Amino acid sequence: MPSDAPPSPSSTEVNALADRLAQDMRRRWNAGDRVATEDFVAAHPALRDHPGAIGELIYEEVSLRREHGEPGGSSEVLRRFPQWATQLRVMLELRDALEADGPPAFPEPGERLGEFRLLAELGRGSRGRVYLARQPALADRPVVVKVSSRADAEHLSLARLQHTHIVPLYAAQDDPARGLRVLCMPYFGGTTLAHVLAKLAPIPPADRTVAGVWAAILAEPPSAIPVTAPPMPSRWSAMDYTGLIAHFGACLADALQFAHDRGLIHMDVKPSNILLTADGQPMLLDFHLARPLVRGGEPAPARLGGTAAYGAPEQRAALVAVRSGQRISVAVDCRADAHALGVVLYEALAGRFPSPGVPAFRYNPRVSVGLSDIVARCLAPDPAARYPDAAALADDLRRHLAALPLRGVRNRSLA
Q1: Are the C-beta atoms of 298 and 220 separated by less than 8 Å?
Q2: What DSSP string describes 113-140?
Q3: Most exposed of 29, 91, 170, 275 (fewest Cβ within 10 Å)?
Q4: Nearest CA to 407 among 395, 415, 251?
């Protein structure tokens, strides 16, 4: 191992960390754990050098205190962080003004929404809410209900995608009175890869185990659906942690290739959009940003999205072009999804976001040179230097797992 210390995390990495921690804070509050901003800062000292990231957590805590009717609300948090008081008051006043204009009328757990009885909130974002629910008309089966604006067209993407590693769509319904679209999907468990990586964060990547991943998956089921803990999948017993992550990557690359073959780019591959089911299968979630490829030289599309920490350079450039009304300079195609999956793999293997030119094995000596090179090719800044499609990426990941010569990168271990 090199003796020099790893470089400090970049602003992009810390902002992405703050986003994940804000989601974790919301999940824990909804589960009854009133965790505070200071708890996250103590566990992640890198946040101290990035006031904006701390501000995001403070704002999330203020919002949660309001939503849960905690005594003191925003005033209590503002007292603990006087240096942020002015900025936070402005942010909260702006949010109040926006909500006064009529936000979507999202339901609360315990309500009925059409034919569904909502049990618990599984997650939320700027565009919608996700609930665990029961469907009394069909043997009271547990389902996942995603509620968003009727302008959202995710159902049109999901309707075309029936694949083992893509969460399917059961039905789509509209609630005109509330201006909402309701998507019903099967309930496969409530754990995402983001949840698992958050649980594993205190463990050095080289010390992580397959059993630890399984324990993290079992730790997340919502209490509204009693479950009996299943045994760890037998196929996992032959893998170590790095092999399991490579296996997940191959399955997800298969799913991406399936979507790409049908003309859809996911555009937002990240750990929180990867479900890990109760039987250990990785599945892609959240196709609300999915779209056909964006061609270079064309006018900027009206709608384009993504998450900066996982987005390929050409996707980030396209987002800038959309905001400025300029033409797209470089195509955004299937290779952008491969880049995002590469970031996910690097993060899971190395315990941190990619550092330019630093292979994953630098941070985790259990990662082989071959696996590092596969991930590095996904992360190439030039799309032409990446895998030509997700199928080629899946093939190399499986060849790595089978100890076969790799096709997409040089076999340095054999040289």
Answers
A1: no
A2: ETTEEEEEEEEE-SSEEEEEEEEGGGTT
A3: 170
A4: 395
Residue 284 · residue 166 · CB < 8 Å: yes
CB burial of 364-381 (b: ≥16 within 10 Å; e: otherwise) equals: bebbbbbbbbbbbbbbbe
> Does residue 206 fall inside a structural domain?
no
Out of 47-56, 145-154, 253-262, 400-409, least confident range: 145-154
Amino acid at residue number 104: P
How far is 239 from 250, CA to CA, in rounded Å? Answer: 14
Better pLDDT: 42 or 193: 193
pLDDT over 50 at 97, yes or no: no
Q: Is the pLDDT of residue 259 over 60?
A: yes
**342 and 409 in one domain?**
yes
Distance CA 173, CA 180 (A): 9
Alpha-carbon span 130 to 242, nearest angstrom: 31
Amino acid found at 320: V
Distance between CA atoms of residues 199 and 109, nearest Å: 26
Spatial contact of 279 and 248, defined as CB atoms under 8 Å apart: no
Residue pair 113/135 in contact by the 8 Å Cβ criterion:
no
The phi, psi pair for 29, rounded to 5°, reads -60, -45
Of residues 389, 406, 386, the one with CA closest to residue 398: 406
- The structure tokens listed for 374 are 């596969």
Domain that holds residue 172: 112-186
Residue 94 CB partners (closer than 8 Å, separation 6+): none
Within this chain, do residues 24 and 156 fall inside the same structural domain, yes or no? no
pTM metric for this prediction: 0.74
